[in-house]
Amino acid sequence: MQNGQLAKRELGWLLNSVGLKKKHLVCPIFVRDRGNKQYHIANMPDVAAITLEKTTTQIQDIIELGISSIMIFGLPAERDDVGSQAVSQNGIVQNTVRKLKMEFGDAISIVTDVCICQYNLSGHCGLFEGKNDLVDNDRTVRMLSDIALTHAQAGADLVAPSAMMDGQVTSIRSSLDEHGYKKTKILSYSAKHFSSLYSPFRSIAFSKQIRDYKSLDKSSYQISYSNLRDCARKIENDIREGADMIVVKPSIMYLDVISMVKEKFGFPIAAQTVSGEYAMIKSAANNNWINENEWKVTSISALKRAGADSIISYFCKDIARLLDCR
Ligand SMILES: [Zn+2]
Prior knowledge:
eight-stranded parallel barrel, 10 strands, 11 helices, alpha/beta, globular, TIM Barrel, binds zinc ion, 16% strand
């Protein structure tokens, strides 16, 4: 056996030794509502925003690798003041879910990102109160519930509110139940930390229409990394409100949060490695500064070891291939 193959086999064993299975992997996909070509993301090598048409082959590849779960992020053709495309029955996420459920049925579990920031002109996760720049929590929560409902109606298995608004889980749960979607689960972004690690993703989702996207300040609703108690309180609230699983995001710098949730609440957790974490490993590897496979495995293993039940990562397909090398 060649050295490279031997190294991959060893990495596959390492993943297995921390208990990682393919069923724990959730593969993010970006779907764009404009043009007919896929769009490579400069700051995220090997990741593309694909067209609705291309989703079929993408999901076929994912299923062939043994991954059974995806998370859809939509990139609409147009933004407006209130992010109306987010709630449209013919929005990009809604159309993608409908198409994939028709083509693949239960072979793929679909999680949808429920937020407004990719659809409005401010890039913020909430709607503003009148002319001032304060986020109107209650109005935003009502809109998030409407978005989640359209995703459930399209066929989403799980909806994932990521706006960090107070009361978003209660409101979404009651709207889903009221409309007969009791089986649709809620994966709540309870611990989404304020961070510049989201910038590589924003370079594609925001840069065209929001010139100063790099200086977007979401600290009034996202969590500060300095306050573990506040983080625990947010998580506890979301569990009480009816979340089925909670997300910790970013991931690798928040292993203590993952362990804390596991220990304190014994509740299902998904850890999401964000675009900046991906870009750090990819850019260092592309410069030959680190061994890419080793670092993918080290970072993903650490999340599993800390207590993550699911892992949302741009490395999912590579990790599935390494698991096959054992
Ligand atoms: Zn958002």
